[in-house]
Amino acid sequence: MKALVYTRPNEVQLHERPDPELAAGEVVLRIDAAGICGSDMHAYHGHDPRRQPGLVLGHEFAATVLDSAHELWRPGQRVTGNPLITCGRCEYCLQGRDNLCARRTMVGMSRPGAFAEAMSIPASCLIELPPQLEPVAAALTEPAATALHAINLSMKCLVRPLPECRVLVVGGGAIGMLAALLLAHYGVDRLEVAEVHAGRRESVARHARCFTFDPLATPPAEGGYDYVIDAVGAAATRKSAIAAVKPGGVVMHIGLQDWASEIDMRRLTLAEITLLGTYTYSMADLRATVAALGRGAFGDLSWVQTRPLAEGPQAFDDLHRGRVAAAKVVLLP
Fold this sequence. Notes:
By secondary structure, this protein is of the alpha/beta class.
């Protein structure tokens, strides 16, 4: 089979790889669509020690079952799946918070991923797709579930209902775009997105129907927002998010661009700000997201760019050089 292989920092190549073998309790999938994530780009740049050269990246996918060693799945079924492979036995898995499983591994990190014509995965990770959900839309399940999980977690901490809040999303990439679309679907009409890339600002404004601005030219209003989502996770955006939130407000931190930075703990304490971190999603979030995508909660998704898998090296290079305005690029094997 053909697979896009991470060969060294700033390089991926299309290679011939053996077809995946069917293992007990697993299925083999034909990949129909696979999205390029920010974490794939992080690995591409050589910044993720968990992802080493020789690995097939990719964990956002839609697929069709080719072969199955599990009674619940049969060839021809259309699926997406949870790229997190968890133990199912620890306290977090039993609580339904499987994203916190300490024994978790991951497709496209600890085993070959979805930038290939085929992939194997445990049957327990699969979610069947509704008939109306096309592969490109279904491949957005994973990043959309990240946004859904974060927003639903935040709503437990907001003093007033979400539609009453003035909301700022920092970053107009895939997570920021999907968060903005979901916030609009949830009824937020005072929504702003800060994004430095002009093309992405225009795309978010058009599809999420919200106000967008360049934070380098016009920093967010200090103390102006009830709820702030940092979908970038850089030192500068963390500082900006905490400065922008009102006293008593909520900051949700999703992005992981920088590993460490200073946080204004004095303001956090004196202004009684709630700072939340979030990691991915639960299996329940993924199922809810498939249903939401199926009923059009994230809009028509016409902002997504598709390319053939064979053009994967160019897609990664274009993303690296900032030549792509689309918030998401999906590869089609």
